[in-house]
Specification:
By secondary structure, the protein is α+β, with helices and mostly antiparallel strands. Helices cover 33% and strands 25% of the residues. A hairpin with a 5-residue loop joins strand 4 and strand 5. The longest helix has 25 residues, at 51-75.
Length: 76
């Protein structure tokens, strides 16, 4: 049986090796040693997100996934 395709982009949770700016908000800085979400955007580009933005993104995704699930459950 075929493996299900993921709806998520390729990502990983890493520890910042150096100071960075958050991809979503340049005003947010990520300090060396802090957790960072690294999202692969294409073959050669990685985007890094701070904790505050990641938590907001997760909430938005959770709401959207719930909407999608509700639509499919109503269909059955």
């Amino acid at each position: 049986m075929a493996k299900y395709k993921s709806m998520l982009k390729t990502h990983s949770v890493d520890v910042a090796g150096r100071k960075r700016k958050c991809y979503h908000d340049d005003a947010h800085s990520i300090q060396k040693g802090q957790l960072v979400l690294k999202v692969k955007d294409g073959m050669y580009k990685d985007s890094f997100y701070c904790t505050k933005c990641v938590l907001h993104m997760i909430n938005q995704c959770r709401e959207r996934l719930n909407e999608i699930e509700d639509n499919f459950r109503r269909e059955n």
